TrEMBL record:
A Pfam family reported for this protein in Swiss-Prot or TrEMBL: Cons_hypoth95
Organism: Lactococcus nasutitermitis
Gene behind the chain: rsmD
Protein known as: 16S rRNA (Guanine(966)-N(2))-methyltransferase RsmD
CDD domains tied to this protein: AdoMet_MTases (cd02440)
PROSITE patterns cross-referenced by the UniProt entry: N6_MTASE
Domain of life: Bacteria
GO molecular function (one): 16S rRNA (guanine(966)-N(2))-methyltransferase activity
PANTHER family: METHYLTRANSFERASE
Matches recorded under InterPro entries: DNA_methylase_N6_adenine_CS, RNA_MeTrfase_RsmD, SAM-dependent_MTases_sf
Transmembrane stretches, start-end: none
Length: 179
């Protein structure tokens, strides 16, 4: 696995061995960013189930200013820290070592890009997006990227967010929401 494009393009990324995380393949990662960007002129990213940190590192590589990565698994946290070091711009990343639920009660910034790839997709995604809207954590121009198993059916509308794009890549489904 590697950073696909941008400032860190081509640099290798580490992933967690085993089945505790499901790393997004380079092909799917490239497709996601082609759907939403592919490049950005600043902004703040929230990666709520960071895994290896690959998606938020890709977003910063492609022009986002900073990323907040949330991961409660200790082994995954160690991989994220190694991947952040690889960027040589660690100041652009903040790793919060706790559950998504706890983080959502603590955050106060407005995010421009939300990355959601939770282990239990449908319930988790919809609940978390409603909490984020209630707590006003989403900018007016937010883009929300949800990665799920292709069998997961998310709602067309979640609060004030509306499904704007959806594509299937192998076993993964990418759903994009905006206000």
């Amino acid at each position: 696995m590697r950073v696909v494009s941008g400032n860190y393009g081509g640099r290798p990324l580490k992933t967690l061995p085993g089945k505790t995380t499901r790393p997004t393949t380079d092909k799917v990662k490239g497709a996601i960013f082609n759907m939403i960007g592919p490049y950005f002129d600043g902004g703040l990213v929230l990666d709520l189930f960071a895994g290896s940190g690959s998606l938020s590192i890709e977003a910063v590589s492609r022009g986002m200013d900073e990323a907040v990565l949330v991961e409660r698994d200790r082994q995954a946290q160690a991989i994220i820290l190694e991947n952040i070091q690889m960027t040589k711009e660690a100041e652009k990343f903040e790793l919060m070592k706790m559950s998504a639920e706890k983080v959502l009660t603590m955050l106060s910034k407005k995010f421009d890009l939300i990355l959601l790839d939770p282990p239990y997709a449908k319930e988790q995604i919809e609940k978390n997006l409603l909490i984020m809207q209630e707590r006003e954590l989403l900018s007016a121009t937010v883009t929300v990227v949800c990665e799920t198993d292709k069998s997961v059916e998310l709602s067309e509308t979640i609060g004030n967010l509306h499904l704007v794009k959806q594509k299937i890549y192998g076993i993964s489904k990418i759903s994009i929401y905006e206000f």
